[in-house]
């Protein structure tokens, strides 16, 4: 309380006393007890009122002691059970968290983790994955700017997440408590297998396998890949104390369309404690995407060679160059590229009326535009005989397929007759024409889609210069070839727009979160944000069926499944209001990543301790750890000096006293006839 406040309070006492004395004692003929009582009550009333006006504040200084956090984090994944360390972990966790000496010195924080991070969750060792990196991320958020120890009860075997050795904050000391038998156990393991999820028919696809050996003796092992119970690849792999990891690359033949299932197996004559990690199932979906493309032209032009090379840069495309007088049968072709149609093309167009093969029409100075006006209804050509050079302008609103701007405006101009080209139908234009940098309103590359029929128009010759210039700019033909490939991919597919689109994989590993994504479009092909989508999931093995609803997701809807057993599943997605439906299948492969380990990862945990100023602890050293934590001077509590300002008397109390004194004074005067 300041000196000025004390002086004001003393002045208030004097004023209150003077007022009370003057009103009840100074004028009184005889100073009886009633007068003294009334004077006292008036003193209290005036003094309380003046105190409310002054509002004196008292500052109190106090010392607050903040304990250092001690984070005790337990691994709750299934690998702890597989290593038969679950009972030991529970005992250690309880011993650390209930130790009274640690409680006196630290603020005990107890957590557990598997793929997620939990506070207060009982240990049940049912987690499907281990993510120690996630532990570090969460502790950073919970204990910002604090210097504190972390006791990590784990086997050190992480199955998802970034390398946890460098994830923990610098102000944390990590003490890993190693769970599981650290005695080296003989074990062969398929550590990782990489294979594409898709392959093309009649192609070879690569499989990369990383094999790991745990042991000290030199051994020979057999690695094989099986399909339908038959070995399709086999080789001998040698390991020794220095060469404990081997990588194998194999090419497999994609000889059948559909989901092809394989099994990778490593074995030896020596008996192993854990054979579960000797096998890894994988699957590859083989797709028949081979397309026969016919380029028809009656003239010779460099564009023909450039188009052929660009299209055939995709191994699944085969191009045949034809003249109109050498055509016998068009049925085998998936797409017709009609280069600069002339009058002789009339029979090609007539034959295609019934076949309805999609077309890619390229025009130029030799094109018969009168014929084009007669046989198609997408564009109206009113052109002169004068040649003009047209540069291209890229339209960002194009949405038929994903295409980036490959610097089209910097590519050489295309030649086409000068004049007006009018769009007659609903077209999707990717490139528009410029002359001397000015838009002329004509398309250069545009697409038409009518039902299942698709057409494209490239209005100008000399696109071979585009390919050459793209190579100059990028030191590769790749960008131009991919641009042409996307056009061919779009045109060689006759699938009409569907109202219900569903995305899913053909197979998943057990323990994975399975997500099925769906989009529903209205009649205007706009994404419907209030669709009611449901999914009926059937286990083909057990015939059991369950129904689920989709939930809203970014730009669509999703259904998520956890804990599905290995096996084959069929599902049907349905939209309630329109009855639109989609049927699909997938397989859950038998693969449990938490059963892959026979020993804790001691070297990794040692790295973690060294990196974070901690120490590796074995279960029988837990008392040593407790003693170390108690004795270490850097973990002393932090004292903070706090100054708390509070009123001398609570204002509500003063109001009550003021009201009581005024009321008592009034009743006393009334009782004694002084009113």
From TrEMBL:
Keywords: Membrane, Transmembrane, Transmembrane helix. The chain crosses the membrane at residues 36-58. InterPro entries: Class_I_gatase-like. This is VWA domain-containing protein.
